Amino acid sequence: MKERMKSLLLLLLVVGSLVQSYYLIYRLPGSDTATKAMNSYIKTDNMGPQEKVENLLFPDKMVIHMGEGKHTIFYPNSTFYKLIYTRLKGRSFEGFQRRSVENMDWNKIRNENPGIEMTFGSGVPVSMLQRVMQIQPDSLFEAERINRIWIYNTPNDSKAHALFFSTEGDVVYEAGKVDLTVQDVQQHVDFGKQWTPYAMQGDGAYYLPEKPVDMVEADLEIGSYTVAQMQQSLFFDPGITRYIQEKDGSEIYTDTKRSLQVRQEQKWMSYTDPAAPPAGESSDSKDILAAVDFVNEHGGWNGVYRLDMSGAGTEQRQIIFQQYYGSYPILDTMSFHYGTMKLELQQGNVTTYERSLIYTKTGQKKTMKKLPGGEELKAQLMAFEKESPVVDLYPAYLPELETKGLKLTPVWAVKLANGQIRTIS
């Protein structure tokens, strides 16, 4: 009996020693390095869902050329847009040849040849397009960024043509082998025959609808991520952050290295990490993937977004994710920041991260509105032309924060050559 009590006492001492060792290693302040990597952030629950980069890569518009000077436009998430884009993503393109842009009469092709012209804003790296389209690897243009894909038929030609335009502006790549027949292209073009007619302006810089365009005005119920949630997500140790109240009313939280600035009246945040360590060589594609991963881990996606980017080939690269409601983008304005996420990266590391803290809920009220078209719209555009040439025209939403939620008002967004955006409601 005495020996059994000694054995039991020894067992209790061993167990107690193990428990004490566990707490010493895993629970003492500063012991996080034993359980997780130095640069890992804390994962925050109950925020936006994650997203795959493939779902962020799609054209901002699809211009349908029907021949005889007739055109129309399909925008993201519309029925024919989704149908055509889904089909094209399943077709292969290979055997590329480099051509000069100056050797083609583009206005003639637009007006006379049936085809589909897809635009990708400021451009997408070929390596990213290969994630959503069957583009065979080709050393000739694998380092390019593509801002336009144009697939069309020509008279008395038994095969379809597919052109990929470089953001450099003077180069276009033609696929020698296209997994599309002339009949395939014509079938896609025919979807536009009963759609709103558009007239090409100038050298195809933009298209003017010949009649008013229907859009939905929306009043949305919203919620807001808290400062505590963003702190928990963005700082290695939220407990050591210091609070600073700025004269303009903005709030700043900092751990002496990183800072989080919050403008409560606009529900907008800006995070900076100037001490982000360099990760060596970088590229457009690596930075895009790094940006998507960063948003996935720090706030998530509160809606549908499309990739846009600038600053390619520079040390500091900016990547923008444009938010959509239905088929149209939401404008980010000086008076109310909403509708975009902006990230700046240096050698693959995020140094700046800006986004709205607002997320939309299921409750919403919709009202049909009409945007002007034809001569009425043309007259208003002529007034802007006095300031700077119009280079693009597209339907968009102007956001307004109200006491009960978020109001999205339909407008024409007018992009000028000087970079300014004007609106027509």
From TrEMBL:
Ranges that cross the membrane: none
Gene3D superfamilies in the record: YycH protein, domain 2
Domain Regulatory protein YycH, residue spans: 3-421
Protein name, as recorded: YycH family regulatory protein
Source organism of this protein record: Paenibacillus mangrovi
